[in-house]
Write a structure and sequence with these properties.
CATH architecture of the largest domain: 3-Layer(aba) Sandwich
Structural class: alpha/beta
Largest sheet: 7 strands, mixed
CATH class of the largest domain: Alpha Beta
CATH superfamily of the largest domain: Type I PLP-dependent aspartate aminotransferase-like (Major domain)
Oligomer: single chain
Low-confidence stretches: none
Mean pLDDT: 96
Bound molecules: pyridoxal-5'-phosphate
Length: 482
């Protein structure tokens, strides 16, 4: 017993080093704030793309018994982490689907981490769970779901798509030998994470019907109806249609209303991946383009895209909340005190996760502190910037510009008078990347290499789009006259 007491006396002061005192906290808070503020002050002049560098951190600073100072740590972050590669905090980020990083979200994360509220089960933190439910309800209202809908805040769209596919699978009670007889309908432009979700959900044996698209890369609804009809006549059991409300490549919105009618007629689950495009429902001008989404069975929507939050915020919404529960219910003796009743389901009843961060706070705080108006204005601004870019580039000689944007993505390429266009545009994007002030990405459409503009960052304004136009034109002419 004395040994134990001695050992406890030795360990306690060391273990207590995990808790900085109030003086240390204020010093460290200040250091971290200064580091972040310095970044935000310099952000307008920082490059959006800085290739190479980084990756030395682990060599210089192994995890060991002794601590490093905050100065050392911040210096390592500044040197090896925070200023290399793509700068996702920059308004010059016009590639892939840009993320956000709205400041109040960071304060929400700070508070969520300090209080460490456990938002998985109502019993543990009724307030945190209710706050998240109010956000799910708000997004449900936004897409037009009825009161029986349920959902969950996830780490992103990929997990949300997986949860939607799993809910659809269990609602259809699909298993075993039925799989090869149960086709899934989607287009080539569906995000790759849906393919992944289908495999992870054990549905790899389901035949996949790749439905043709129109010239704007939207699902051809007539071809969808014909494909389902043909399958039914041949004895197949169509069960899932996956549509996109804003494809990642081209920002195209499938004809959701018509697809909803087809899904209802054939009794199939209708899943909409609106990870990128969903929050454009906040824009009066774009809202009608997403009409029909209210008739879907499940929707994926990413607050870390259209709501400008930092990475780590996706959401799944399911019209019939019971099917989300059916796919994710659990039972465990050690959880007996925390079990929710059927009417009052908690996140742990609706998702694969048990322990999870209090994700709602980083979304709630910006919505509370900014109100909706600036979000709506920013989304309207992004739509207009894409139109503006499309218009401007179409008016310049030598450019082949893709379809008028449904949302905020534009595809384009320069057509050189001589030589291979794909190779030319690869050199062109390299020149933009070498410059680094704005960042765009590329894709392949119908076998052709094209460049993309994706405007979704809350810090992207006319200035960044004008700079891109200027750089594109300058380098296209320079490269053609070499
Ligand atoms: C980004 C995106 C995804 C994947 O979401 P993550 O949040 O990156 O996991 C899925 N679908 C679409 C349409 C997307 O744009």
């Amino acid at each position: 017993m004395q040994d134990i007491e001695q050992e406890l006396a030795r360990l306690e002061p060391i273990a207590r080093q995990l808790e900085p005192d109030s003086r240390q906290r204020s010093i460290h808070n200040q250091q971290v704030m200064d580091y972040a503020n310095d970044f935000l002050q310099r952000l307008p002049d920082l490059k959006t793309f800085q290739p190479d560098g980084g990756a030395n951190l682990l060599q210089g600073m192994p995890v060991g018994e002794q601590p490093y100072s905050m100065e050392q740590v911040l210096e390592a972050l500044a040197g090896d982490v925070d200023y290399d590669g793509i700068n996702p905090a920059s308004g010059g980020h016009l590639g892939y689907i840009p993320g956000g990083g709205q400041y109040y979200a960071a304060l929400g994360d700070y508070l969520a981490d300090v209080f460490n509220r456990y938002a998985g089960v109502s019993y543990a933190s009724p307030g945190a769970v209710n706050l998240e439910k109010s956000l799910i309800r708000w997004m449900g209202d936004l897409v037009g779901y009825p009161a029986g809908a349920a959902g969950d805040l996830t780490s992103g769209g990929s997990i949300a798509n997986l949860m939607g596919v799993v809910a659809a699978r269990d609602a259809a009670e699909l298993r075993g030998s039925q799989l090869e007889n149960s086709p899934i309908y989607l287009t080539e432009q569906v995000h790759h994470c849906v393919d992944k979700a289908i495999r992870i959900a054990g549905l790899g044996e389901c035949p996949r019907r790749i439905i043709p698209m129109d010239a704007g890369y939207r699902m051809d609804a007539e071809a969808l109806a014909a494909s389902i009809q043909k399958d039914k006549s041949a004895g197949y059991r169509p069960w899932l249609i996956v549509a996109s409300a804003g494809t990642t490549d081209t920002g195209s919105v499938d004809p959701l209303q018509t697809i909803a009618d087809i899904a209802a007629f054939h009794g199939t689950w209708f899943h909409v991946d609106a990870a990128y495009g969903g929050f454009f429902m906040l824009s009066e001008t774009a809202r009608s383009a997403l009409d029909g989404i209210q008739h879907s069975d499940s929707v994926v929507i990413d607050p870390h895209k259209g709501l400008f939050l930092p990475y780590g915020s996706g959401a799944i919404l399911v019209r019939d909340g019971a099917s989300l529960h059916k796919a994710h219910y659990y039972d465990a003796h050690y959880m007996q005190d925390a079990k929710s009743n059927q009417q009052d389901l908690s996140p742990a009843d609706l998702s694969p996760e048990l322990s999870r961060p209090f994700r709602g706070l980083r979304m709630w705080l910006p919505l509370m502190l900014c109100g909706l108006a600036p979000f709506r204005a920013a989304l309207d601004e992004k739509l207009l910037l894409a139109k503006y870019f499309h218009h401007k580039l179409s008016a310049l000689p030598g450019w082949e510009v893709g379809p008028e944007p449904d949302l905020s993505v534009v595809t384009y390429r320069y057509l050189p008078k001589t030589g291979d266009a794909d190779e030319f545009n690869q050199r062109l994007i390299k020149a933009i990347h070498d410059d680094g002030r704005v960042f765009v990405s590329s894709t392949v459409l119908n076998g052709t290499f094209v460049l993309r503009l994706a405007v979704l960052h809350f810090r992207s304004h006319r200035q960044q789009v004008d700079l891109l136009l200027e750089l594109l034109n300058f380098h296209a002419i320079r490269l053609s006259t070499r």
